[in-house]
Amino acid sequence: MSDVAKYANVSTATVSRALQHPESVKEETRQKVLAAITALNYTPNVLARQLRRMETKTILVVVPNIENNVFSQLLSGIDAVANQKGYKVLLGNINHKVDKIYDYLDHFRQRQIDGMIMLISDLSDHILQDLANELPLVITPDSSDDAIVPTVVVDNVGSSQRATEHLISLGHRRLAHIAGPLHLSSSKSRLEGYRQALHENGIRFDHELVKAGDFTIQAGFKQMEQLLLMEVPPTAVFCASDEIAMGAIKRIKQHGLKVPEDIAIVGFDNVKFSSIFEPALTTMAQPLEEMGRQSMKVLIDRMNGKTLSKNHFIYSADLIIRESCGAHLNKRE
Prior knowledge:
Elements: H1 2-8, H2 12-20, H3 27-39, H4 44-53, E1 58-63, H5 69-85, E2 88-93, H6 101-109, E3 115-118, H7 125-134, E4 137-139, E5 151-154, H8 156-169, E6 175-179, H9 185-200, E7 210-212, H10 217-228, E8 236-239, H11 242-254, E9 264-269, E10 282-285, H12 288-303, E11 312-315, E12 318-320
Parallel strand pairs: 1-2, 1-3, 3-4, 5-11, 6-7, 6-8, 8-9, 9-10
Antiparallel strand pairs: 10-12
InterPro entries: HTH_LacI, LacI/GalR-like_sensor, Lambda_DNA-bd_dom_sf, Peripla_BP_I
Domain HTH lacI-type: 1-53
Protein name: DNA-binding transcriptional regulator CytR
């Protein structure tokens, strides 16, 4: 195969894709590979069978960091399908260093993995194109709407709109939002859902009521502190993650206020310990394990050269009402 790759001036991975998944490469590239095979007197079907025997039955899941609780639930779903189908799952942590993705791409080129699931959103188009040209790839749990590879995502706009509308239904009119990093599409989409809920309920959007930071407890604490310093603090806060919400609640308590009596809180994700937090956290529950399972199923189809019925799989999040929103209290006048 290396002879064919050298003759055609492409990578061995491209030769593999041209033979096993021709729909994933440009027609011009496929013809170059076929011409090289003919010139070198190889038989395409024999070479394809040899490539199939080189399958590792191993896939790589790449995460931006290993600290986010969302990833463990996604991995649980991925691993369940992988075990059922006889695949091993390796975990790659880029620690927020995007260039490290290319190091993992070398594992594919060396035939150490068969495909990749990226738990990373907002990769640049040229990185996505580089990856898509080389190997079967799926992105979850978030991506831009026009991603060029298969995605398994949650409806962040609609889910965040429902979370905000729930607080509005409890009588709140001065609602704040603590967002995640605003360069991420998930953060921008959740902010948009918050804005839409305000607009549709006749509430003016106030930039001062929007704060942004990381998806962490520390960021929630810090941004809530800024909201509490306002002359008129909010009566409710929709947080872009459960960890942000937990940090916000911690700061509210330190300020001598109560949740939800003084300030109501809604989070996003439904991480496993959100139900035992004090107070128990009202949140939008992403079906993370199911999204993980679907991601693995899509990747297996891609590795087997199957044509997907669609390229983007979108899930809804469910509102889980617990104590932090104050639904059990009387509605505000």
